[in-house]
Amino acid sequence: MHHRLTILSVMLAFCATLMAGTDGPQSTAKDGWSVNPVPAMAYDSDFGLMAGGFVDLSYYGGLYPNYKHRICLEALTYSKHASFYMFQYDSKYLIPGIRTSAKLYYDDNPLYWFYGFNGAVHDYDRSLNCNQDNGIAYYSYDRKFINARLEFEAPLFAHLDWTARFSYWHYWINELNWEGYDQSNTLFRRYRRLGLIQDPESNGGSIMEFLAGLKFDTRNIESMPSHGIFADVVLSMAPDILSTGYDYVKLAARFRQYLSLGSDRLVLAYSLAYQGTMAGNQPFYTQSYIINFKPSDGLGGATTLRGILYNRDMGNDYFWTNIELRTRLLETNFLNRRVFGVLTPFLDAGAILQPFRFDSQVQALYADDNVSDQTIEQYRSGMLDKARELHMSYGLSAQLVIDYNFVPSITFGIPFDKRDGDYGLYMTLDYIF
Which of 61, 270, 341, 379 can bridge 68 by disulfide, Cβ–Cβ 3.0-4.6 Å? Predict the structure, then answer.
């Protein structure tokens, strides 16, 4: 969802980065701070016209191309009324022997996307998606959240690290309340009426989450590896400390491999990912959260299935894969900065393995749709097939790698099935894996 800009912003990023730190650029690039401010005015396929910017600060301290300290600040607002603010700090040297990360997010979206539980169970009708002509935003409700997290990581053995994280979330959720749209005609309201979204969770709430896991990493460079493996497995636990009536345990695992095909100029990169709920009773507003990502919801969007509608698939257990061919076409030094141009064709695919609240969904929709010409078993079987459908997309990314650690990337993705949307256009910082 976040860091999305367009070609105009890539040009701004390039120019601003080259101009930053001109008072001694050689020292800035190799030893001191590298400052990359990027103002942004652009258009995004999901959010409309956007204004804002971000600043990426890396302190190398003689470790170039790796850094000692990195700070990212970001503020974005969109003409379709969403806004996002982020602070992020990362260092392997603040506490000797332990990598420390701190992040703070605030997200405000009065037209947040909701396509129902279990993806393709509901067909997507683009004429109902924030259509100002007929005054319908059927797939929207009002959502805000704040997330603060503190994460630690340290080595156990060669290439194997442990990680631990504490997170606090608070969600504010309301019915659609935006001028020009029919507040009574939304899928969110239908779910509330059917009891699929329960009263105790319908207004949001707080979650305290504890995470522990292992990471295996043999990448040669973190930001743009040409060979190596990066894999992790984490267990996330949210006990009911705040007496909300909700608690859960989740397992998430991801395997990423980078294969140099003859030279570092051509790299095959692929990722295999799984996330599932092992136990507990989870509120619907946290069910779609993808662990270990910049705030991202469900399958679809810039960080999971590119080109597919954001949060299109929300289920209990997920599996997805991303395959990229990273082709370096440009390599140069400009103003004492190392610059690479990369083209990356990709293929993404993912599915819900275990649906969320599926039995309740079948009963509620069966009655609400007034199905009379087939048995509920047939209805259930058809819904289950839809819930577990494979969703695929393909497309092309272009990266401009500056000093290895600053990687603006523009991506255009197209879904194989138009029920998943028409296309997606995103600009992110860094590769998605």
Answer: 61
